[in-house]
Design a protein that fits this description.
Layout: E1 3-7, E2 10-12, E3 18-25, E4 34-39, E5 45-51, H1 54-57, E6 61-63, E7 71-76, E8 81-86, E9 95-101, E10 105-106, E11 110-114
Parallel strand pairs: 2-11
Antiparallel strand pairs: 1-3, 3-8, 4-5, 4-9, 5-6, 7-8, 9-10, 9-11
Length: about 120
Amino acid sequence: QVRLVESGGGLAQPGGSLRLSCEASGLVFSRLPMYWYRQGPGGQREWVATIYSRITSSGRREYSDSVRGRFTISRDDAKNTVYLQMYGLKPEDTAVYYCNADQEHWGQGTQVTVSS
């Protein structure tokens, strides 16, 4: 049974930072691409970042234009965990952030609110 559990969300001030974590189980984590998506209030779910497997794709990372230069995705295969380090947070980053494995499995989401 595949399980993805996000954590690390919360309230941050504009310009602040947060680090999200997503721990996976029930899959061969090290071989899978991992994704972060987000869904803002009343909006559609949008892709945020991808990190590919170090084994199959050299750990390549990709970012959406809206977060490139501010967010960093990383993975720890020993811990079956993917991270999203967020700096320079803006109110428009407010959303529920979801972890995804291999474009197939989803976590339950963690709320990020950016507000003064």
